[in-house]
Amino acid sequence: MIQSKGFASYDPKADLKPYTFERREIGDSDILIDIKFCGICHSDIHTVRDEWGKAHHPLVPGHEIVGIIKKVGSKVTRFKEGDTVGVGCMVDSCGNCSNCKDHAEQFCHKQPTFTYNSIDEYQQVTQGGYSNNIVVKEKFVLKMPQNLPLDKSAPLLCAGITTYSPLRHYKIGKGHKVGVIGLGGLGHMAVKFAHAFGAKVVVLTTSAHKKEDALRLGADEVVVSKNADEMAKQTGTLDFILDTVSAPHEVEKYIALLKTNGTLCMVGASPDPHQVTSFSLIFGRRSLSGSLIGGIKETQEMLDYCGKHHITCDIEMIPIQKVNEAYTRVLKSDVKYRFVIDMSSMNG
Ligand code: NAP
Ligand code: ZN
Fold first, then answer.
1. Closest ligand 1 atom, CA of 291?
2. What pLDDT band is residue 43 in, cutting at 50, 70 and 90?
3. What is the mean pLDDT of residues 37-43?
4. Across 220-227, average pLDDT
5. Residue boundaries of the structural domains of the chain
6. What is the pLDDT of residues 246-270, one digit of tens each?
7. From CA 148, how far away is CA 61, in angstroms rounded?
8. How confident is the model at residue 347 (pLDDT cuts 50, 70, 90)?
9. Which atom of ligand 1 lies nearest, measured to the CA of 187?
């Protein structure tokens, strides 16, 4: 077995604390990665606090993982020791269902094995990236762009693909006006991608102080959603909205901003239900949809796109000892715009 150390939740109500555990020895198709950086996603917080259901504590969260390969199994062909690689939200899937065959492993009919809080094929609880190493099947390991700083690339593995994928699916580009609700980890990447794809971008934020940042990140307009007049001006103007909000909010207020035939796509995963009336959708034939991360092939495509277009994340680096403080700040929407853990602090 391989010794690992990280930070884990022991209880949904308590702080994360140091945790020592074992990972499986690498098999023929496995890769052992020394983790350098790991982003903090709001999903980590939902999970360890049992907001999405009871988690398998003690649980090491983290699915925005980047690092250097330490060892490869005998059947690994695409990677070698010393390569810079990433791991996102999934580490396995059945590989045989129509969605897996169609490169949409996130929708595997048997459920993908998520990077943490899943039971893997060895009947072990998967443990994530707030740790010094990880063992992952080759198929779920991504090549990181060589020209981008590794720390600022870590959040691409979740915040990046989760926003890139729906924007691509809905073929967002030149001539579209796109709304992004919530300027957090996902939201700031949605702004960068929608802008890079040629769309006009409107940020819909509850935080007036984020206005300048939103414009710098690529927004053309910023609407403070608490201001009814500013919201009213956008009524019926948006082709597409990406909703990244992590908490309950008035979705109908935003649906009203869509043009006829427009779509509001949810990526934010509030644990509580939203209220949406039929009328908000049937008038204007509007659609409400959702999207879950992206497949492995598309994640690699997104990483390559970021390398080509020099797209990285705006991060605040922290040592792992500050993870609980970072959680408190994420919950106050006080993060610009992703916390990333420097894993060298694990030894500090
Ligand atoms: P985050 O950094 O906390 O950003 C969420 C943003 O939403 C906040 O910065 C804030 O932006 C806004 N917000 C927060 N509370 C709000 C409220 N009560 N009303 C209106 N706006 C509010 O979180 P994240 O890491 O980007 O994740 C966002 C959500 O996406 C989480 O629920 C996460 O679990 C989910 N997620 C889903 C997927 C997927 O595959 N679908 C993948 C990753 C994450 P402003 O200050 O600008 O208002
Ligand atoms: Zn995430």
1. 41
2. very high
3. 98
4. 98
5. 2-158+314-347, 160-290
6. 999 999 999 999 999 999 999 999 9
7. 25
8. confident
9. 26
Instruction: Check pLDDT > 90 for residue 348.
Output: no
Q: Kindly state the average pLDDT of the residues 275-291.
A: 97
Question: Which residue out of 186, 203, 230 has the highest number of ligand 1 atoms within 8 Å of its CB and is therefore the one to mutate?
Answer: 186
pLDDT mean over 222-231: 98
Predicted model pTM: 0.98
> What residue owns the CA closest to ligand 1's atom 17?
247
Q: How many CB atoms lie within 10 A of CB 71?
A: 16
Pocket test for ligand 1, best of 181, 189, 210, 246 (most atoms within 8 A of CB): 246
CA–CA separation, 193 and 189 (whole Å): 6
The residue whose C-alpha atom lies closest to atom 38 belonging to ligand 1 is 267
CATH for 2-158+314-347 (3.90.600.10, 3.40.50.720, 3.40.30.10, 3.90.180.10): 3.90.180.10
In the CATH hierarchy, which fold is given to the domain comprising 160-290? Rossmann fold (3.40.50)
DSSP 302-345: HHHHHHHHT----EEEEEGGGHHHHHHHHHTT--SSEEEEEGGG
